[in-house]
Automatic annotation (TrEMBL):
<feature type="binding site">
    <location>
        <position position="342"/>
    </location>
    <ligand>
        <name>homogentisate</name>
    </ligand>
</feature>
<comment type="similarity">
    <text>Belongs to the homogentisate dioxygenase family.</text>
</comment>
<feature type="binding site">
    <location>
        <position position="327"/>
    </location>
    <ligand>
        <name>Fe cation</name>
    </ligand>
</feature>
<feature type="active site" description="Proton acceptor">
    <location>
        <position position="284"/>
    </location>
</feature>
<dbReference type="InterPro" id="IPR046451">
    <property type="entry name" value="HgmA_C"/>
</dbReference>
<feature type="binding site">
    <location>
        <position position="363"/>
    </location>
    <ligand>
        <name>Fe cation</name>
    </ligand>
</feature>
<dbReference type="GO" id="GO:0005737">
    <property type="term" value="C:cytoplasm"/>
</dbReference>
<feature type="binding site">
    <location>
        <position position="363"/>
    </location>
    <ligand>
        <name>homogentisate</name>
    </ligand>
</feature>
<feature type="binding site">
    <location>
        <position position="333"/>
    </location>
    <ligand>
        <name>Fe cation</name>
    </ligand>
</feature>
<keyword id="KW-0408">Iron</keyword>
<dbReference type="GO" id="GO:0004411">
    <property type="term" value="F:homogentisate 1,2-dioxygenase activity"/>
</dbReference>
<keyword id="KW-0479">Metal-binding</keyword>
<keyword id="KW-0223">Dioxygenase</keyword>
<feature type="domain" description="Homogentisate 1,2-dioxygenase C-terminal">
    <location>
        <begin position="273"/>
        <end position="420"/>
    </location>
</feature>
<feature type="domain" description="Homogentisate 1,2-dioxygenase N-terminal">
    <location>
        <begin position="4"/>
        <end position="271"/>
    </location>
</feature>
<dbReference type="Pfam" id="PF20510">
    <property type="entry name" value="HgmA_N"/>
</dbReference>
<dbReference type="Pfam" id="PF04209">
    <property type="entry name" value="HgmA_C"/>
</dbReference>
């Protein structure tokens, strides 16, 4: 059974064994039971209190006890940079990528889209994964970025240093930069997406005139209660640093944190709890109205990464074309589909697939969707049975060579054949 603490980004404290958590002192010389006190900082020590993220972990042995890391000999497809070739300003789309079979999460993770170098401390990458078996006797951590999990097929069970998270499709999970975890696949196989955020940690967006409630509400984020394992024997630590994977073997499980407190911790969120807002008069709000989480950049209002969903919702506006409008955008948009159909595309965008509309590329509904929507009676209409998402960023995405080789060849045809408008002669 998994226990959760509720609330987003707040201070939590939890102990798997009564008495393990010290009261009043972060780092006593002698923690209970001989535990080791270790601070995990997700922000510079001197960040303002509102931005400061850190947790104190009380563990059976210190993380520092490990031999030198060496280059990992397994998966070489995660952390790949974007293709070096000049990228034509074309829209791109992918069927669900065929990823190598029979791997666990670490070896089944493939980078599709990249932006900045992790050392820039800005940017976001989008990976796809196929995990057919659970990770055993090994664990993973990214020192490059925060990981946003989006399972599409099969539940994930994330056993992190700070507790256990059950993450079925339709949920997301966030594992902060530097938090170690193992991925189990209780249903025997899983696939989906992971966004890796190199920039400021994801947070809830400000709500402005919306008010104090709405969109993703803080109380619906669930952080795991402390849970640990006491397992001796070889354990492979795999770590992503600087876009490369590194490995070292220790003599125990590193998931040995008996108690912790702080505001730097993994969490999960059920996307059906998102309080979708929209127009009740005319026109669409901008898609930012669907923002679940945002990673700000140094420029006010310009996101390093926005995580946005298009969930089931009612469309009730008057005099309004119901699908998303045609648009071009200075931001770059990567989209995926968890289940169902996305309302702007008649076909070609299937669950597990991906699309990319980079900076200023023209896009919107395809011809068939436009025609149907133009002829439809405008009455209240529910978009149901669907869940699409977008990771939008101010940094143009670069597909990796792996992705470029697998892009659909005919995506541009989605917008071919619009009839010319019949405009009378100018007066
Ligand atoms: Fe768009």
């Amino acid at each position: 059974m998994t226990d959760y603490l509720t609330g987003f980004g707040g201070m939590h404290e939890t102990e798997a064994v009564a008495g393990a958590l010290p009261i009043g002192r972060n780092s006593p010389q002698r923690p209970a039971f001989g535990l080791y006190a270790e601070q995990l900082s997700g922000s510079a020590f001197t960040m303002p209190r509102s931005e400061n993220r850190r947790s104190w972990l009380y563990r059976m042995r210190p993380t520092a006890d490990h031999p030198p890391y060496e280059a990992y000999r397994g998966n070489q497809m995660v952390g790949a940079k974007g293709s070096d070739k000049p990228l034509a300003p074309n829209r791109l789309r992918w069927d669900p990528p065929e990823l190598p079979v029979g791997n666990d999460f670490v070896d089944g993770l493939v980078t599709m889209l990249a932006t900045r170098d992790p050392a820039d401390l800005e940017g976001v990458a989008l990976h796809c994964y196929r995990a057919d078996v659970s990770m055993t006797h090994r664990s993973f951590m990214s020192a490059d970025g925060e990981l946003l999990f989006l399972p599409q097929r099969g539940a994930l069970h994330l056993f992190t240093e700070m507790g256990r998270l059950d993450v079925p499709p339709g949920h997301i999970a966030i594992v902060p930069r530097g938090v170690r975890f193992r991925v189990e696949v209780p249903e025997g196989g899983a696939g989906g997406y992971v966004a890796e955020n190199y920039g400021a940690p994801f947070r809830l967006p400000d709500l402005g005139p919306i008010g104090a409630n709405g969109l993703a509400n803080p109380r619906d984020f669930e952080t795991p209660a402390a849970a640990f394992e006491d397992v001796e024997g070889d354990h492979e630590l795999i770590q992503k640093n600087g876009g490369h994977l590194w490995a070292a073997t220790i003599d125990r499980s590193p998931l040995d944190v008996v108690a912790w407190h702080g505001n730097y911790a993994p969490c999960r969120y059920d996307l059906t709890r998102f309080n979708t807002l929209g127009t009740v008069s005319f026109d669409h709000p901008d898609p930012s109205i669907f923002t679940v989480l945002t990673s700000p950049s140094d420029v006010p209002g310009r996101a390093n990464a926005d995580f946005v969903i298009f969930p089931p919702r009612w469309m009730v506006a008057e005099d309004t074309f119901r699908p998303p409008w045609f648009h071009r955008n200075v931001m770059s948009e990567a989209m995926g589909l968890i289940h169902g159909e996305y309302d702007a595309k008649a076909d070609g965008f299937t669950p597990g697939g991906l699309s990319l509309h980079n900076v200023m590329s023209g896009h919107g509904p395809d011809v068939e969707t436009w025609r149907k929507a133009s002829e439809a009676e405008l009455q209240p209409h529910k978009i149901d049975g669907t869940l699409a998402f977008m990771v939008e960023t101010c940094w143009p995405y670069k597909p990796t060579d792996f992705a470029l080789q697998r892009a659909q060849h005919d995506y541009d045809e989605a917008w071919q054949g619009f009839p010319k408008a019949k405009v009378p002669d100018a007066d």
